[in-house]
Amino acid sequence: MLIYLRVLKESFNFAISALRNNKLRTFLSLLGVTIGIFSIIAVLAAVDSLEKEIKGSLSSLDNSTIILMRFSFGPSEIPSWKRQQFPDVSYDEYQYLKKNLPGLEATSYTLNVPQESLKYEETTVTGVGIGAVSHEYYDIEALQLGEGRFFNESEAVSGSQVIILGHEIAQNLFGESNPMGKELRLYGQKFSVIGVLEKEGSNFLGNSKDGAVLIPVNVVRRIFGDNNKSTFPQIIIKPEDGVDNAEFIAVLTQQLRNYRGLKPDEVSNFFVNQLQGFADLIDNITGQLNFIGLIISGFSLLVGGFGIANIMFVSVKERTNLIGIQKSLGAKNKFILFQFLFEAVILAVIGGLVGLFLVWLVSIGASQFTGEFEFVLSPWNMFLGTAVSAVIGLISGIIPAISASKLDPVEAIRTGM
Question: Which residue would you say has higher pLDDT here, 274 or 286?
Answer without folding.
Answer: 274
